[in-house]
Amino acid sequence: MVPIDLQILKYIFMEKPIYYFKMKPYFQTEPYLNLCEYMEKTPDKELSNNLNQREYTVFDLETTGFLPEIGHEILSIGAVRMDVKGRIIDEMHQLIKPIRPVPKDILSLTNLSRESLAAAPSFIDGFHRFLAFSEHSTLVAHPAHFDVRFLRAMVKRWKLPEYSPACIDSQLMAKLAVPHVSHRLDPLLSHFNIHSLERHHALNDAVMTAELFKELLKIICEEHGIYTYSGLQQELKKQKSS
């Protein structure tokens, strides 16, 4: 394992220029300009503060590593859309063509092939699809501080307009709702008897997280008396700092 400080230096002096060189041709293409326009002009819909009157997009990413700040990339996005009654009404699974070669251990972990990734659309097209899919909803991820941070770092790398979506961290929700259970996804699935699908597949993980989110939201509302998005965010901020 290469020390993190050496990875940072390698990215700054060797890989970052390569990324920019390979991304630059996209910057004047129609899909890129359309995405910029979409992000700048699509107004945020006023969402209800009531947690039970919002639609949610529960999503998961498969990536080449944990640090987008040093060049790690998104390989796939899986997402499910939930209506105000907590029902899954739509789903998406999008592969993303990476800029740099993918390590063999990541391919093995995700069961993705170089061929399928090479044939996939760019981050520009994949992210545009995700934005349209999740429009006028609140994002949920486990943990959101990883997945949302990764998306925002990719947006910055691609020099797109700022991206600051409304989101809920289901891992922090679990810390509040079931403090006696490990807050990793697998132990939580077992605790709530949620059917386990093949892991490290973005859509499967999104589906399982959606089922978990429903259970956690019920506890948050019924046992903790938290019914508003603003109230939940205040409590989750406490969990994050504790």
Explain this structure.
With 242 residues, the protein is α/β, with parallel strands linked by helices. The chain has one domain (4-241): Nucleotidyltransferase, domain 5, CATH 3.30.420.10. The chain is built from 10 helices and 5 strands; from the N terminus they run ααβββαααβαβαααα. α7 (170-177) runs parallel beside α9 (202-222) and α7 (170-177) packs across α10 (229-241). The radius of gyration is 18 Å and the shape is globular. The model has no long low-confidence stretch (mean pLDDT 94).
The tally of structural domains comes to 1
CATH architecture annotation: 2-Layer Sandwich
Mean pLDDT equals: 94
Q: What structural category do the secondary elements indicate? A: alpha/beta
Strand content: 5-15%
Distance between the termini: 31 Å
* Number of helical segments with 4 or more residues: 10
**How would you name the oligomeric state of the polypeptide chains in this document?**
single chain
CATH class: Alpha Beta
Q: What is the CATH T-level topology?
A: Nucleotidyltransferase, domain 5
Shape: globular
Helix content: 40-55%
Spans where pLDDT lies below 50 across 5 or more residues: none
Based on CA atoms alone, the radius of gyration comes out at 18 Å
CATH superfamily: Ribonuclease H-like superfamily/Ribonuclease H
Q: Give the helices and strands as they follow along the chain.
A: HHEEEHHHEHEHHHH
The main pleated sheet reads as: 5 strands, mixed
User: In total, how many beta strands?
Assistant: 5
Order of strands, widest sheet? 3-2-1-4-5
